[in-house]
Amino acid sequence: MVGIVIGSGIFATPPQIAGSLDRFGPMISVWILGGILALCGALTYAELAAMYPRTGGVYVFLRVSYGRLPAFMYGWSALLITYPASVAAVSVVFAAYLTRLFPGLNGSQQYIAAGLALCMCALNMLGVKLGARVQRGFTAAKILALVALVGFAFVTLSGRWEHLTPVFAMPSVGWSATAWALAMASVLWTFEGWADGPTLSGEVRNIRTDLPRALFISAALVTGVYVLVNTAYVYVLGIPAIAQTDSVAVDLATSAIGPYGAVFVTVLVVVSTVGCVNGMVIAGSRVFFAMARDGLFFEWVGRVQPRFLTPANSLAVLGVVSAWYCLLGTFEQIMKYFIFVASIWYIFVTLAVIVQRRKHPHADRPYRVPLYPIPPLLFVLAATGLTYQLLIDNTRDATIGLALLALSIPIYFLWHKLRKVKSTIQ
To answer: Mind listing the pLDDT tens digit for each residue in 251-296?
Structure first.
């Protein structure tokens, strides 16, 4: 999960946040609040995953809480928007940084990005344990590199403690709901991925302890890393410099290490993005696999590869769609739809805990959300506010996202009718 969450966001979003909240206290507070919200969401998802330890995660939670149509709508958005667009976005970042290391590859970034998406899908076809080992290796490498980057920052002579003070000063333009919402949207996008762990709940050995522990530790660890890295950015560069750069990590490393700093960060981003893509591929493929097992997608997508015992066909579908987005080169627009659509599903899935508590009060719950109902309600409140703000600030893209979701409704009924006809013929 740490490998999925820590991708390219920590290198891209700090300038946007610094531009909205130009004091250290407010800037760092949104990262801490983002971590708290991610933890609230993770603890909520853990209860659902422990109740329904089946491969598919969010898809399963929606189906048992609201029915097959909402679950199909989620799967539809996951297939066409959420996972392939995310994989493509991070793959393109990988290609861009790889060509910095090897300039001769310039001009072929789209093909490199598509190749990464396909390679990660192919690798995970060869075994769950192999994919997990690769994930652990890349995650350990990126955490160590980020810790080293923070260490370099705090031993350098170019840092200034004055950049961090006064800690509790308000932004220069005062408190603004729009600025705060935009900053929080960027932060929550950087935390995106914490919800992907439950997609593998059907493959966890000890669901009662392992999954809640993984959710809690990963949310806490990522929050700690993000706070340290952003503090290092401010300590060395200062908030005005962060707000004006488009390569904050490169600037930090160059100031702290010298000319080799840019190479260090470039390698760090390459490693980080590979691990992120691998994790998203593992999680996303399980959604389509679960849909097919439920009869809401082509039956062959739900088959397990007999030799390697992996959802190979589902991985192939995700790889092809993701690679197509990479080659298409217009996935940035799709990402705008994704952020709005994903926030809607976050709200519905978190509310599913309350639905399940009411529908099945005496059901076996190997894990219960601590301090219920505070964590789910806190998360829903924040997610609803951000969804509304995204709708107001980007009405066109939000409307397109809603239209894509609405399109899944007639497709669901058509699919259901075709299956009836098929079963009648058989």
So the answer is: 888 888 887 888 888 888 888 888 889 888 988 888 889 888 888 8
Q: How many CB atoms lie within 10 A of CB 395?
A: 11
Asked if residue 202 lies in contact with residue 217, where contact means CB atoms within 8 angstroms, the answer is no
**CA 222, CA 214: separation in Å to the nearest integer?**
12
Domains parsed from the chain with CATH numbers: 2-425 (1.20.1740.10)
390 token code pair = 């995204």
CB 121 within 8 A of CB 319: yes
Average pLDDT over residues 379-385: 87
Closest CA to 379 of 352, 355, 354, 347: 347
C-alpha R_g of the chain = 21
Six token digits for residue 254: 């160059």
**Quick check: bond before 166 cis, omega within 30?**
yes
Kindly list the distances between the CA atom of residue 347 and the CA atoms of 5, 63, 69, 355, 366, in Å, as whole numbers in the listed order.
Answer: 19, 15, 17, 12, 23
Q: Is the peptide bond before 373 cis (omega within 30 degrees of 0)?
A: yes
**CA atoms of 27 and 174, how far apart (whole Å):** 13
Between residues 246 and 285, which one has the greater pLDDT?
Answer: 285
- The 10s digit of each residue's pLDDT in 118-145 is 999 999 999 888 888 888 888 888 888 8
Q: Are 192 and 9 in contact (CB under 8 A)?
A: yes
Backbone angles phi, psi at 180, to 5 degrees: -65, -45
Q: How far is C-alpha 92 from the geometric centre of its chain's CA atoms?
A: 16
3-state helix, strand, coil in the chain (%, to 5): 80, 0, 20
pLDDT average, residue stretch 150-157: 82
